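User: For a benchmark we're assembling, each entry needs the component sequences followed by a predicted structure for the full assembly. Here are entry 17's components. Please fill in the structure.
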Amino acid sequence: MVQYVLRRLGTSAIVILGVSLITFLLLHGMSGSPGRAILGVQASAEAVAAFDREHGYDRSLAVQYLDYLGGLLHGDLGHSYKLNQSVNALLAENAGRTAMLSAVALLLAIAVAVPLGVFQAVKRNSVGDTVLTALTFVTYSMPVFLLAMLLIQFFAMGLGVLPAQAAQSSSDFVIFTEPRAMLLPVLTLTGVTVAMYSRYQRSAALDQLAQDYIRVARAKGLSMRLVLTRHLLRNACVPLVTLVGMSIPLLLAGNLVVESVFNYPGLGLLFFNGLNNQDYPVLLGYTLVAATLTVLGNLVADVLVAATDPRTRRA
Amino acid sequence: MPARAGRSQMNPDAHPAPDDTSVLAIEGLSTGIRLRKSDAGVVDGVDLRLRRGETLGLVGESGCGKSMTGLSVMGLLPPGGRVTAGSIKLAGQELVGLPEKHYQRIRGNEIAMIFQDPMTSLNPTKTIGDQVAEPVRLHRGASPKQARDRALEMLALVGIARPAERLGQYPHELSGGLRQRVMIAMALSCEPKVLIADEPTTALDVTVQAQVLRLLHDLKDRLGMAMLLITHDMGVIAQWADRVSVMYAGGIVESARTGDLFTGMRHPYAQALLACTPRLTQPREQALYSIPGSPPDLAHPPAGCRFAARCAHATDRCRTEEPVPAEERPGHTLACWNPVDGPLPATAPTAPLAPTAPTVAPPATAPADPAALEPLERPVGPVLAVDDLAREYAVGGSRLRAGRRGVKAVSGVSFEVAPDRTFGLVGESGCGKSTLARMIVALEKPSSGGVTALGAELGGLRGRGLRRHRRDLQMMFQDPFDALDPRMRIGAILREPFAAQGVGSAKEQLAAIRDLLDEVGLPHSVLERYPHEFSGGQRQRIALARALALNPHVIVADEPVSALDVSIRSQVLNLMRRLQAKHGLTYVVISHDLTVVRYLADTVGVMYLGKLVEVGSPDDIYLRAAHPYTAGLIAAIPEPDPAAGPPGDQDGMDAEMPSPFDPPSGCRFRTRCPRAQARCAEEEPVLRGFDPGHTAACHFPLREPRPAAAPVG
Amino acid sequence: MTESVTDKPGGPAAPTARDGRGVRLPDTMSGWRLTAREFVQNRLAVSGLGIIVFFVLFCFAGPYLYVTDQVTVDPVSSLLAPGGGHPLGTDAQGFDVLGRIMLGGRASLQIGLFAALIATGIGTLYGTIAGLAGGVVDGFMMRVVDTLLSIPFLFIVLIVATRFSSTVLSLSLILGAFSWLAPARLVRAEVLTLRSRGFVAAATVMGATRARIVARHLIPNALGVVIVNITFQVADAIIAVSLLGFLGFGLNYPDVEWGTQLSAGVSYLLAGSWWLIYPVGGCLVLVVMAFNFVGDALRDSIDVRLRRR
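Assistant: Structure for entry 17:
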């Protein structure tokens, strides 16, 4: 097991290294000449060249990459010339709120999707299953912003019970201090995530239901309820753990849209504004962080799966 | 479907046992499964009575409804299935229509069931201890401590060594035989009145099968249970059942005491089923008996007797009127209009030599283009020579540790096969025989050693040369469902060998394909069809036709009939023999089934953990085995004759085959060998001669080796 | 953002009808025809296909039957409620909404299809090469896929989109260039499975060349997976392009796709101009759902055929 974790750590490191190469190349390719981008079109060619030389942008790509990598290893994600702040500071300032929103939505989604999927599998083709399947299908086929707009239209404008904008406080824990103002963003993000997970959980549970050991458990005299809780649930959740790990990019993408729609000051909104400013150090800094999170998420998921399913523990 | 309820009342048991001794009484049971378009009556009017301490065998081919009968009793029919008529009484209590809550108290408590595949029947993420303890916790309200003790006791009872260690293990850490023992421990932990064992040993090796059946038998006596033993194997029935019911297409055709049935069966199906069960005593020259055709579609059952279409004794009455089960003699019931009298004589020719032969004998599979298909110069010596062949696999894909840990699938195997002869290779699963087969046809590269086929070292051939050489070296695969491309019509499948070798024009190819179909006894109309439309036996015929297409000299057949029912199996085996004689083929036949190899082979090799431990003529192997493993393997086969003693009495092999990751030092068999001594662990035995052409690798053989014999191999 | 997840039907396999000599075989039916029959029996799939056909006609043929001016801004008739000459009203620029949905749908469908074809094309080639090569090459190729997969798709697509002026072609290329990873994995897994199948070994033993095995066995058998993947990719790409449009990276005036159209309507939703949002939103969801239905049904019918092997 330890060996397995170590090996997975190794491959994760390689993948993160690969990601850093890609973000570096994009940073380089997107910005063109940083000097020109920063000093503007009016600047003289000499001034641009001087700037590039001063900041080392005239060196070979390989050297610049090593430089970039060295910075990363020291936790330096670069500098936003547009906002004249270090990328680290910008990300740190916003990370807490995004982490809270995403984590709450993720946990809620898992808490809803697991029982929902198992219920649908056990009662497959019943009226309840059909209605739920239709509902998840519609949500699944809907862009995040459309769901957000429908929820705003219904709760904020129709019923007038919830605000259409997210809380604007700079506290990381705004989600707990102003829950009413955060309900719609959380609901939106949870909704799309549930749609994705519950479909998957339903099919995983169906797969498990068809296994011989379920019939054996029934033959022991266990009621269906005990079969589900004692035998099926654990096995049926194994694929979902992997899926959750892999779906971090989708969760962050959903978060980006939700933050822009509800104007919630987090990393998503920072990214959205960065897009409009063409602030590539911020954009790629966050991308690198997101990719690293994904890699770690996959790693944690794999270790969890190995802990749950003894068959995958190797060596 | 006609309800047959009440038949038992009309024909009461002649030895009317007091009702309380009938633990389980099934009367007129009919079970239907709703398919997408139709309903299939998978069980139709079945009567069974199971007394305390008795084993009732329920025998039939796949799809005959025997498993559905067991699941009906358990109330665990698959979705869409339900009992449509009849009654199931457990100690007087009616189970049909019993509310689920009450049924749950009976399952695992008063009736228990064990299933065919121990590999998938245990929850992979729970420990053995938890799973065995579960029924006791549930039905007896035992505390965790009590349940654990009970689990420990049960594991010891089913003969698992070091039970305390096993409690904390997970199923994947156990071998198949051990898992089946765990299943038995689990099923019996509440000491049920009735145990339903559904093909309990079909997925296991023959040596393990003998151990598990003996265990079941002993436990049944010890706990005073009744056992319903569901199997397809007449040998298992003969050895372990007190009474037997023969099932065909959903109905019971004949029931009797086991001895009475085997010596005096009256139903033609029972007679045929026994006749096609291969025996070790059968004369090899004789064709195997086989039942033509295949069972009917239960969604559209034929009128009259369901066996009529395949029955040699069928009359018009059989085809129109369903036979009523009636008591022939006390305790012997029968559903047949034209009963036969006892088994077919074993010595007389049992069947036309080739019951499946086409009426018109076609010309040889004429090569479409004689020049292109001109056979290579036939070598004088052996057609095929395997020389010190070995194959190792790295484990875990990590190249860093490959040197340390590898599976030695095959290590140092040598043999030769003469032209037109058959070399049979037997061994239990995991002994490396399939890897060996794949190396012989150059599907896999050996780690060391080589294969010389038809005068060419396969390892030395590349590209075009190898492809051309392959014409003479064909293979038949185990799984007929996997070996034919599901997207190709049969015509395209059979044309592929010609196309791959670029032989003949389209017209010539078609002519050759038609000849091939005649050879294997299939109508020309199959050419337009797809593989999924055929049964296993028919697919294996198509695969054989394809292997023959290039007019090869050598065919390697890897478990050619193991996926087939016994009645279909003999059709294919007969066909293989007939084609060998006709085309002068050389076969290498690989099987776990000793009877299959005995029927086909001129020379038999016995493999154990990647090594050839004994080679000889069939008589050498089956009558004069020198290696204790060979002897144990043969002793484990259940004879389809109740008069023969049950297998495994000699108590040869207790344990199961060790892991090939880490084979024992010295003689690999020593961990299971009753004759093993210190020397066996230190020194690896070499092959020594016993008779001409008979060699075995053992330090302490069952027979004295020829004194003059110098070590070979 | 959606991701195609496996959803195998878990019901018990229907017992195979017995056939054989003496018993009449069912009418011969090819693998593809069997698939087609399964598909037709699935009502959702048929309605999905119906919706797709309807929208293709609606978006591509519609503008010829229902002619509207989608170029000239007309402030006089802006934000008209449905009725009169405008069945779905007009937007802030005075464009007829029904006509605009046709125009936007055309772009959305085109981008969805192009992007899906590009992604599936690249992915199939990549996955096939990796699966066939095996060993170190396969290991390296799959590490590359792992790396790219860990970068959020929407992030990278948005970043790249900032440097291009959006056209149908550029958006298709950008989306296609970053969504071939899932099909690559899928096809590789399929190739690996197929390579271990008995019929491939049988072909090898016959002396078939590698090219022949790929052409006659691997491609026809992997085709089902690839086709199913295309339908899911179309659905995903339509959603992705709507997200780009919504975030301001969609097509530029006078062109439009549904995301941009929705984005433009949002500000007027508060003023009560519901017709700017609901019709186009409904169309978007319907089309994406239709592709998902068809994909699910195709996958199930291919599964059925394999079950009946």
